[in-house]
């Protein structure tokens, strides 16, 4: 395939903007058009549930690049427009403003949106989600004394929103359908750390609790009724029950899909050799993990563009970075590297003090191979531990838990 001249990137979030940036860094001199539905400049989403939500940083701090950078790099940034169709035969993209864009290579970075609640009352005012700047702006005033919030969902977003709003003085109740928040991902022992943290900080964490309806008065949410009949009063209800990847364009164009995303090979190329996918929607055949993975986290959107740009420009590069994410909740900071499906995990080995929330956790398979590691309130160790995961080494658990054994010596 010859080196493309016209490259179109659909989706102007972090993944899309970084793809455009990486293409220029790797020497592309042809046209780059970056298409985004939001009217904002491309921005990073993690601050929306952390520092931006709490008011510690401005929105400008979350921007991928300032406005003038796109002009300096000769990147045609189209804001507030939506791609409506891909014609793979003609190699064109139709936009909702009537424009048609020709492409030699097309990158899909369409991201995800918040999964909407189907509960009765979910369409009322005061039922909030967190995905965009506007969402974060709507939640921010709730972080105040005297405000009552019910958060439906005890995943990462739900817990981060609970931490910020509770820290601001709000009375916060989190509803978790399972017996512990995050248990399906982390297992009970580590999930209990998060449950204990939130309860110590004054969050009312209700487990094995499922909402039956959102209570509404005069068109506005006033609380939540649980399946067991209990009613919780609230000034607002925040729903955090996951995300739905935007696959409409890809599916309508007939691209192969898998694992809830656009099926791409190790180099992020789809079933159409001229179309690629990055970020939330990329169901990527991971060369180290030996299986297809789709990761809805910041690091994927940040790093996949470096590989896809090289591949598009003729230097095929497999994306080999392991999944990484982080969270900040109250006084707990965490980094997680790797992938540990529960059906592969034989045990979790802990080095450090769970009660003090200062520890490393290692997920091991039946052969003793490290699948994933989590560092809680311990910094600058993930890169040291990374070779254990990338080289799939088996490690004696006694050495993992022994603080006298240097991590670099494992």
Protein architecture, described:
With 410 residues, the protein is an alpha/beta fold. It has 3 domains: 6-113 and 243-312, FAD/NAD(P)-binding domain (3-Layer(bba) Sandwich), CATH 3.50.50; 127-239, FAD/NAD(P)-binding domain, CATH 3.50.50.60; 331-409, FAD/NAD-linked reductase, C-terminal dimerisation domain (Enolase-like, domain 1, 2-Layer Sandwich), CATH 3.30.390. Helices cover 22% and strands 30% of the residues. The protein is built from 11 helices and 27 strands. The chain has helices spanning 14-25, 51-54, 67-72, 133-139, 156-167, 183-186, 188-200, 248-252, 298-312, 382-390, 397-401, and strands at residues 6-10, 31-36, 75-79, 83-87, 92-95, 100-102, 105-108, 112-114, 127-128, 148-152, 171-175, 204-206, 211-217, 220-226, 231-233, 236-239, 243-245, 257-258, 261-264, 275-277, 282-286, 291-293, 324-329, 332-338, 347-353, 358-364, 370-376. Strands 3-2-1-7-20 form a 5-stranded parallel sheet. β18 (257-258) and β19 form a beta hairpin. α1 (14-25) packs parallel to α9 (298-312). The mean pLDDT is 97.
């Amino acid at each position: 395939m010859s080196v493309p001249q016209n490259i179109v990137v659909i989706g102007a979030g972090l993944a899309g903007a970084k793809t455009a940036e990486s293409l220029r860094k790797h020497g592309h001199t042809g046209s780059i058009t970056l298409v985004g539905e939001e009217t904002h400049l491309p921005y990073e989403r993690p601050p929306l549930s952390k520092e931006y939500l709490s008011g510690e940083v401005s929105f400008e701090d979350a921007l991928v690049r300032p406005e003038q950078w796109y002009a300096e790099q000769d990147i045609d940034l189209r804001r507030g427009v939506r791609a409506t169709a891909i014609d793979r035969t003609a190699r064109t993209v139709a936009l909702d403003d009537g424009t048609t864009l020709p492409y030699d290579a097309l990158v899909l970075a369409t991201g995800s949106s918040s999964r909407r609640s189907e509960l009765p009352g979910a369409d009322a005012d005061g039922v909030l989600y967190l995905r965009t700047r506007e969402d974060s702006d709507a939640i921010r005033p709730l972080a105040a004394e005297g405000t009552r919030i019910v958060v439906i969902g005890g995943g990462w977003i739900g817990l981060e929103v609970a931490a910020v709003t509770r820290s601001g003085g709000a009375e916060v109740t989190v509803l978790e359908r399972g017996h512990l928040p995050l248990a399906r991902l982390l297992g009970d022992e580590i999930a209990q750390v998060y449950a204990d943290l939130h309860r110590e900080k004054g969050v009312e964490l209700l487990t094995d609790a499922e909402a039956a309806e959102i209570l509404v008065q005069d068109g506005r949410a006033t609380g939540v009724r649980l399946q067991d009949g209990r009613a919780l009063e609230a000034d607002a209800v925040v729903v955090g029950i996951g995300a739905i990847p935007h696959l409409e364009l890809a599916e309508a164009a007939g691209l192969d899909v898998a694992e809830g995303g656009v099926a791409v090979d190790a180099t992020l190329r789809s079933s159409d050799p001229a179309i690629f996918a990055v970020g939330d929607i990329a169901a990527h055949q991971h060369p180290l993990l030996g299986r297809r993975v789709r990761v809805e986290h910041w690091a994927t959107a940040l790093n996949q563009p470096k590989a896809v740009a090289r591949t598009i420009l003729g230097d095929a590069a497999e994306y080999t970075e392991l999944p990484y994410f982080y969270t900040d909740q109250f006084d707990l900071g965490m980094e997680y590297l790797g992938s540990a499906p529960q059906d592969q995990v034989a045990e979790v080995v802990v080095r450090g003090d769970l009660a003090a929330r200062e520890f490393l956790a290692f997920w091991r398979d039946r052969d003793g191979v490290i699948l994933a590691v989590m560092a809680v309130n311990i910094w600058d160790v993930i890169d040291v531990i990374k070779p254990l995961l990338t080289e799939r080494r088996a490690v004696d658990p006694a050495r993992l838990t022994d603080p006298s054994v240097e991590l670099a010596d494992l």
